[in-house]
Each structure stands twice: as C-alpha cells, then as structure tokens.
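#struct-help
A.M.: can someone run this one for me? Single chain, 232 residues.
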Amino acid sequence: MENCSKILNNSPYFFDSKPLVVKPWSADENFTKEIVKTVPIWIQLHRLDVKYWGDRSLSKIVSSVGTMMKVDQATKNRDKLMFARVMIEVKVDQDFPSVIHFKNEKGAKVDQKVNYDWIPLTCAHCGGMGHDKPNCTRNKNGHTKKVWVRKQVQPSQPVEQVATREVQNSTGFTQATKFSKVVGQQLRPVITTNSFQDLSVSECEREPAEVVQGLMGVSSLGRGVTAPMPNG
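D.P.: on it. Structure tokens below:
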C-alpha cells in the first residue's frame, strides 16, 4: 500500500507529452468512459526574465491560460535559463493563445510568448478527445468510410530450362553445353570465331624449297648459331 500511495501522490504522469490519469482500483469501479473536462499540460515561457521565475510571479503570469500546478526541477534550480517550464491545468475546450500579456512591477505591459508541449484535441460533434469533427466516426456527414481492398498481385514470370546449342568454331573444337535458367526469355548462344587461321599441312607442303632453305640460313637471335653451308 505504501508504493501505491507513492504512485498516486506523484501523479500526474505524462507519456509522449500527454497526461496519464492514474486512479486507485476498487471492486465497485465503473469502467465506463468518463467525460474529461480538465487536463494538466506543460508550457514553456521563453525569454522570461529570471526575476519572474518565482512561484507567485509565475502563477500570476500563467493565470490567463490556466491554473498553475507546479514548475519543473530545472526551473526551480535555475539550471536552464532559456525558458521557464510550468505545469498548468486547463480546460479541454478553451482557447490556447500563443502570446499572453501581463504588467510588470513598473506597470508596463509585457508580451510573453507561450509554447505548449501538447494541446488537447476535442471534437465539436461528440465531445470526445483525440480527434476533430471531420474525423469523428459518429459524424456521418463529414466522416469518410474506409473500405479494405485486396492488393493486386502481379503474376510471376515462368522459369524455363533451356539447353544451349552446340557450336563448332573454325578450330574444330566444340563448346560444352549446359542448362541455364531463363526468366521470361531464352539465352542466345554466343558464337566465337578465330581470326587467325592455322596453316594446313597441304599449304606447308606446297611452300617453295627456296623459302625453306632461306629460313635455314638465318642466324638464331641471341645465340650466334648459323646453319651449315653446303660443300663446294
């Protein structure tokens, strides 16, 4: 019970800058949805002079927006001097001005900018929270009904096994055949040709004897060896 009381006393809690309402449970608890009229929110007062960061001064400054509940620890300790952060209680259907006005100790009017961590969204049609009138499910005139439609699935292309044809090139060698998977189209065989034709045996036999003898008389490069000269 001690932990339960501690949790209840430290409320309200916030999740994603939205208030989280915590209540003690009982057997006679009514779980019907209650009508929420007031909620706590955090506001930031940027460039507010530090001399106005006291509880009494902040309470008077934010009174035009809501009732002050407390200030955060950084504001109380003067750790972050960029803005004062205050928790206030507001009505869900009220206006949330971006600038508030107050008079300082000299009677001069001061315009103070206000930033809201979260602004409650209410519906003017059903009075519920979390949506506006155009998105209200109870408003038949302004609500657009959503219909589930099955997504069209594109048919996949068939996979075929196509055997490549045997191709014989000019050298007399035959390319190896293999199977390849083709999606949508067949692979075309690649035909290779050899631009350098080998000399046939008959052409070598027809070469003149003078050419062969002339080649035998040429010295080997780098070895200094020559063919023997004929006697005579």
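A.M.: thanks! The two ends are 134 Å apart (CA to CA).
D.P.: also worth noting: The CA atoms of residues 37 and 120 lie 11 Å apart.
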